[in-house]
């Protein structure tokens, strides 16, 4: 973009025959930038924000409409957690791939010859393939029937 505008600061005067060509170059450059911004914004909104919003709306504790025994509540929530873990892993993976694609779109714009060989080596492969898992911890008193049950769900790196 800077190169396109540079001609207007030095080589073109108001009497120059190249003003229409300069204006065409500026218009094309601005159109390309507008298209790039639209592509990046659409990708971020559709492939990243939507996925993260759906994860944020997830309910991590399943509370039935009618009273149940603590052991049944535990079993219900363990099943619910297993289902959520699979769903979150899929959604997280989808968002991660979209972020990588988004970063690579920005890297596509890098044109310096000395950076071409290394411009896509920005990610540490060791960290990229590190598995992610989930665990839960159940804390309760000695008398499960009379003591409140607290279920803590946590997502962490394995």
TrEMBL record:
Protein's organism: Holotrichia oblita (Chafer beetle)
Name the record gives this protein: Dynein heavy chain family protein
């Amino acid at each position: 973009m800077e190169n396109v505008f540079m001609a207007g600061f030095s080589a073109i005067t108001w009497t120059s025959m190249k003003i229409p060509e300069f204006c065409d170059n500026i218009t094309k450059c601005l159109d390309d930038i507008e298209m790039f911004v639209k592509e990046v914004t659409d990708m971020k909104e559709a492939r990243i924000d939507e996925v993260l919003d759906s994860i944020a709306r997830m309910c991590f504790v399943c509370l039935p409409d009618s009273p149940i025994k603590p052991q049944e509540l535990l079993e219900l929530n363990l099943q619910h957690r297993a289902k959520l873990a699979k769903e979150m892993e899929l959604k997280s993976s989808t968002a991660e791939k979209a972020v990588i694609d988004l970063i690579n779109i920005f890297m596509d714009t890098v044109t310096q010859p000395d950076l071409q060989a290394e411009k896509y080596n920005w990610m540490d492969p060791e960290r990229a393939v590190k598995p992610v898992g989930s665990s839960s911890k159940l804390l309760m008193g000695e008398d499960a029937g009379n003591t409140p049950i607290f279920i803590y769900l946590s997502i962490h790196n394995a």
